[in-house]
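User: Here's a structure from my thesis project, written as structure tokens. My advisor, Dr. K., wants to see whether a designed sequence matches the one we expressed. Can you design one independently, without my sequence as a hint?
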């Protein structure tokens, strides 16, 4: 019921910026990982479920949220899971995975370094590698659920939807959004958001090339620094009473920049992947500033 429900995550207006109303889709209302990665994990697991139940175990590299969601699903479906988490991850991820009784391997600075290890050990141990970085079950989840929900919510609310902003980690949800809206509402621009050179924002990364060649890429990609993401997220907390995670702060920052050049009344939607409570250690350096 929790993971298959037909109830959308909330869409709320958080700010007016010039001629733009800015709306946030609050993905922390997903119940397992408190993030958008519930959608990704469910699609990955159900897409390979026969193989998973035959082998009995799943391995996956994750910055944290997908790993937490997979661990929760492992208890619902009855398989074991080993999650490969970078040593730079915030503590909520490894702790939540262990709380659900699953195995954590912490090593290296990022998921990109962990991917070969997860693949090698899955092959050695006969486990299923979910591979959110290359499996099209990832973006398909966001065509099926995230984009469709957002479209219907915006129509129901009568929004003049002009742009959707989404961060790029695996780039799964931005690929799903771009593909859906290019087909259904081509007037809506989907914008990708990535860390600026030299910045580290949990859960997202820079892309040298588009990782989903069979699907649409965002119309534009905007770089945001980790400091700008944090300061914007904290400003939203103080204005709207909602504290987005750092990746959500990055998307809001990108949308606010884009709004400065908007010449007509419009609505922008920002997909907020998770809640800032997971990143209070990182936010603490900016508190009181």
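Assistant: Designed independently from the structure alone:
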């Amino acid at each position: 019921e929790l993971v298959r429900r037909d109830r959308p995550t909330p869409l709320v207006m958080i700010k007016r910026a010039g001629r733009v109303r800015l709306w946030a889709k609050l993905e922390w209302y997903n119940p397992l990982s408190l993030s958008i990665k519930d959608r990704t994990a469910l699609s990955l697991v159900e897409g390979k479920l026969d193989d998973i139940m035959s082998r009995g175990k799943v391995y996956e590299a994750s910055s944290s949220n997908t790993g937490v969601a997979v661990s929760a699903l492992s208890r619902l479906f009855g398989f074991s899971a080993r999650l490969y988490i970078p040593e730079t991850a915030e503590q909520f991820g490894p702790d939540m995975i262990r709380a659900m009784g699953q195995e954590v391997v912490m090593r290296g600075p990022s998921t990109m370094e962990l991917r070969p290890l997860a693949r090698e050990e899955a092959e050695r141990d006969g486990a299923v590698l979910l591979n959110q970085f290359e499996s099209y079950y990832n973006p398909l989840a966001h065509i099926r659920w995230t984009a469709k929900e957002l479209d219907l919510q915006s129509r129901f609310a009568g929004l003049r939807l002009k742009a959707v902003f989404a961060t790029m980690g695996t780039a799964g949800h931005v690929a799903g959004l771009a593909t859906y809206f290019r087909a259904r509402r081509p007037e809506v621009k989907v914008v990708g958001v990535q860390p600026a050179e030299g910045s580290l924002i949990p859960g997202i990364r820079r892309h040298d090339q588009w990782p989903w060649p069979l699907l649409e890429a965002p119309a534009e990609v905007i770089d945001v620094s980790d400091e700008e993401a944090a300061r914007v997220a904290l400003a939203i907390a103080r204005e709207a009473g909602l504290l987005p995670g750092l990746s959500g702060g990055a998307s809001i920052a990108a949308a606010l920049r884009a709004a400065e050049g908007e010449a007509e009344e419009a609505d922008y939607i920002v997909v907020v992947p998770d809640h800032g409570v997971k990143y209070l250690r990182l936010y603490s350096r900016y508190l009181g500033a």
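When you compare it with your expressed construct, this may help: The chain has two domains: 11-35+136-283, 49-129.
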